[in-house]
Amino acid sequence: MLHSTRAALGLRQNLAQFMLLVAVNALVGGTLGQERTVLPLLASQTFHLDLYTSALTYILAFGLSKAAMNYFAGTLSDRYGRKPVLITGWLVAIPVPLMLIYGPSWERIVAANVLLGISQGLTWSTAVIMKMDLTGPKQRGLAMGLNEAAGYLGVAVTALATGYIASAYGLRPGPFLLGAAYIALGLGLSVLTIRETHHHAKTEAFQHVSAHRKADACLTTGQVFTLTSFKDRSLSAASQAGLVNNLNDGLAWGLFPVLFVTSGLNVNQVGILAAVYPAVWGAGQLFTGAASDRWGRKWFIVAGMIVQAAGLAIVAASHSFGAWLIAAVLLGLGTAMVYPALLAAVGDVAHPTWRARSVGVYRLWRDGGFAVGALLSGLLADLYGIPAAIATVAALTAASGLVVAVRMRGSDHPARQKLV
């Protein structure tokens, strides 16, 4: 009798719900994408912020609030269920487009990004957790690739669209009306079509044949934080790589548009470059996530960090649209290699009973990279110029890849990795 009530695991068995969650995450990405092209230009052209450190405060606010909510999303979804957390994330986003459209001061724009970070932390984290719940261990890389591809293709399409809207109709209000439509649609889908998946995680925990010690299934939240952040070799390597990855994404978000405009590119060209990077990132994950299921996570992550570093170095050394386009492709390709493999690596090692919390801790560190990137790149740009800031972050990205090479355990069967 008990056996008959267990949820079926697997992508094929849960395809309809999985694809609905993919669609929801595309809308989550689009909600973020409304800012990628426009907000750096709003800072310089509308609010006349001269210091890069000041202009990047919106990324700092976004990164801190998103990182914090990533952490709580895992704990809350274990306690109250996944769906209520997802819906709450959409509700928090409702005021954001209005604040971006009508905000009379930069402080109001920063406040909007605090809310956006909270919303993104709740919605994106929960979408990740729900897909892990549905698919089980065998296709986790594929699931994460599809999830992140949808999200960042949403970012890319919206960054491109808002670039064209801004060039035709101005920086406000047009680009942010698109974000408002995404929020309305995402909330409606989440309320009406998405079903709870927590019972799938409980089924996997019951079936879990693991090399983990028995006690590993019963960790406190504090123990999960320490293990994911510092103690376990693979989890801690993933956490630092995630932080550095989003550090360089925060730099790209905040400083690339300013660099491109001051070098003579028009808003349409800036929109193209702002879209190509997440577009390659998004589309590439359709392949890299599944490939990491077959060949393991570690070397995808190492190679991806090195490719990102190369793309950043080209941006720092170049002065033309063509060179920057090549760099954007490299940066997107490297990130596509890293992103789903890192998430899947955390899912491989974490026990199903505390996996949501471990994913939350990893995403705390990863999206904390936005805040670190905003502070570091802003200070370096103010002191030494944008190219020097980009070159420094390129070196940090390469070093992070080397840390993964040394510290993370490799495995031909990534779902069978053991805790240290």
From TrEMBL:
Topological relation to the membrane, as annotated: Multi-pass membrane protein
Domain Major facilitator superfamily (MFS) profile: 9-412
Signal peptide bounds: none
SUPFAM superfamilies: MFS general substrate transporter
Keyword field: Cell membrane, Membrane, Transmembrane, Transmembrane helix, Transport
Keyword Transcription in record: no
Annotated InterPro entries: MFS, MFS_dom, MFS_trans_sf, MFS_Transporters, Sugar_transporter_CS
Main location: membrane
Keyword Cell inner membrane in annotation: no
Ranges annotated as spanning the membrane: 15-32, 52-73, 85-103, 109-129, 150-170, 176-194, 299-317, 323-343, 386-406
Subcellular location: Cell membrane
A cellular component term, taken from the record's GO annotations: plasma membrane
Top-rank lineage group of the source organism: Bacteria
PANTHER family: INTEGRAL MEMBRANE TRANSPORT PROTEIN, RESISTANCE PROTEIN MDTM, PUTATIVE-RELATED-RELATED
Record's protein name: MFS transporter
Phylogenetic placement of the source organism: Bacteria, Bacillati, Actinomycetota, Actinomycetes, Micrococcales
